[in-house]
Design goal:
Layout lengths: L4 E8 L3 E7 L10 E4 L6 H15 L4 E8 L3 H8 L3 E2 L2 H14 L11 E5 L4 E6 L5 E6 L8 H11 L3 H8 L13 H13 L4 H21 L8 E4 L6 H11 L3 E3 L6 H17 L26 E9 L7 E9 L2 E8 L12 E2 L13 E3 L5 E2 L6 E2 L25 E7 L3 E10 L2 E11 L4 H15 L6 E7 L3 H8 L13 H12 L5 E5 L4 E6 L4 E6 L7 H10 L4 H9 L12 H13 L4 H19 L5 E3 L2 E4 L6 H11 L6 E2 L4 H5 L1 H15 L9 H5 L3 E8 L8 E9 L2 E6 L11 E2 L3 H14 L3
Parallel strand pairs: 1-4, 4-5, 6-9, 9-10, 15-25, 18-21, 22-26, 26-27
Antiparallel strand pairs: 1-2, 2-3, 6-7, 7-8, 11-12, 11-14, 12-13, 16-17, 18-19, 19-20, 22-23, 23-24, 28-29, 29-30, 30-31
Helix pairs in contact: 3-9, 4-6, 4-7, 5-7, 7-8, 12-19, 13-15, 13-16, 14-16, 16-17
Amino acid sequence: MAVDSVYLGVDVGSTTVKVAGVDGDRSMVGTSVYMRLDQCPSQLEAVKRAVGAYLESVGNADVAGLGVTGSGRELVALLLGADLIRTEIFAHAAGLNYLLRSGHVPGVTSARALIEIGGQDSKLITFDDEGMPAYFNMNTICSAGTGEFLKQLGDEAGIALDELGRIALESPAPAVIDATCTVFSKRDFRHLTQKGVPLADRLMGACLALVRNYMQNVARSTQLLPPVFFQGGVAANEAVRQGFQRYLGTEVHVTPYAGVVGAIGMAVSAHETMADACGQARATADGEVGSQSSRFRHDYAERQFRSRVRHCHGCGNGCALAQAFEVADGEELVIDTLGGRCDGCRNPDNVRKEPVSRAFVLHAAFTRPRGEAWQGRGRGGARDRGQPRRLPDLVYSGTRPVRPSEARLFAGIDGGSRGTKWALLESRGPDVKVLGTGAVDTAGDAIAALMQALRELKAAIPLGRELSGVGTTGSAGELFRDIITARSRDTSDVRCTEIVAHYVWASHWKPDVGTIIDIGGNDAKLILVGDSGLDFAMNDKCAAGTGSFIEAVARRFGVSLEEFAREAEAAAEPAQVAGRCAVFGESDIVHKSRLGYDRGELFMGLCHAVCRTFLSDLGRGRTLATPIVAQGGAFLIEPLQTVFRKVLGLSDDDFVVSEDPAQVLCAGALGAALVARGRWEQGFDSAFKGFDAVLSSSYSTVTTVCTQAGCHRRCDRVVALLENGTVLAGYRSVDCSFAHFSGLAEDPAQRRHIQAMLKGSACG
């Protein structure tokens, strides 16, 4: 289709470039282009190809105006010579309104809500009665509610994105998949695969997880009134569209040209801008608007426009910069320098090839030297120099021991989402001897992991000996306690929080501990020891500051964690790696690897990213008292220890990691065992059922609905724990006056009620 002149719209996102155009009458012309950036050597090359392909579809018409949007809009505007630059919110709203008003959506002339989900971001726009944007919101730096989420799971399943939605629609019973983090969702997806859950159920579960994440984190409390439209690359997935319809209870329309609406909006806006610039649309012989004032660079395809990484030395932020430059007549002409958090990068003297020394971590946390006055936080209080610290008495709860535990055995089990750890201790007066530790992959089945841990624990107990108490902790700590013990009160088989467990073990072998840092596979904890209590912070909904980030990158490069550590330690300098989202960070590392970055430098940069994220998220504004004890499986990777010490400026004596890897990995289980010992010394005996009784029984969980005469609530998706088909416990009822689903079912009336609910309304 040949036209004399065209108004271009270009939308450059994080994963794709889109091009569309209109003629002088504002009618869409040519063939719109939707191209993935990974199909080309660079983003700029992808833009050149996409624009060239579109112009070829309109007979290489004269470009009368150009509008640019998207995350890459500033750099692309320089390459092409844009007449208009606008945000994605503006572009998508303008594009949708144009399509509605020009009759592209039969029977619908207005919109009240717009859902837009692209490769690495998602947006919500609501409109007033006049069709004007009234509210908008975007996702945070997280991939869980974006197209990258589905791409990662599609790669995990070995299927193309355009096949994912079709297969998902075949699902009769969608699986439940974690919606908080893409890395955790991949873990769930993998575990469901191991359990034999059909592919269609797993994929539909992923689509519904994306919908839940979007509604919880982008829409939040905003009411989406009909008509509701859905656009962006993910709108091509029919399973996701149906998921939104199910969630909202109303029809969700997929916008025509859903993948290129932002580009259409910019094309229409460029037309309006050029008309305004001319004062009036100056009619030519064929009635089209003149193009004399457009800034469009017709020589864009020949321009040698490149970008490179540079670093700002203007302040302590040490920002990594993208410096655009053009090569002309053998000389480099710097066009712009982007990515700085302040104006320091505008000074050419501050922009250098090498990074700022120690600029990889935002100094959000500070340490105080040992022996200096402590300024507490929360319940911490203050302590003068030389005054002995009174540590929180979490083991004995203020009651002194009433009997010695010499030579008795105590066990601890830490039920985590990634791994289930166990530990066996023998009491030796005030000290203990570690007789054994172990770790079992939870693999999405906490009960099966517990059974394997119990078998290993049983094998570690010396012949003729028995346990005097079993402590449990972790996300499955309550479940484990209810399975192994006959009662939940007045027993040495006690459940404690992970915060308590990690503190108790750290303070046992390092009595003057000031701070505990625990980084595991899926979560991270910071525990501050005050004079009268503990202050803590946790991250359990994002993999960016956890060991999962490192594992995912190691798996992507096909190396073991040991090889990862060796290559990272050998690196001359760490590369700058995006660390706010594990998935985006992994993509950043892969991209830089293709550009020729040394792999070891990327691995060391990843360790810096994990440290930076931890200190920024959990340590910001806090004073970390030394010595710091580091626990959790991530600290088995020695380069991570090195980075924390370097960033915090601490020696091996002030940032301490046990020389025994088992005590680093199983610190929570060891602490739980110590808590059980403390309870026994207070006079409480064990109600442990015994290994044979537990291992020979069958345990399962059933999800049901709870109703009760006299109760105004209807509690959905409460969980019953069954032992050999008989009700053992109930969970997840919040503030229930009747306490039917509030843990171990020790009251016969409680068991009868749960059993009745299971018979009447069990749902899986």
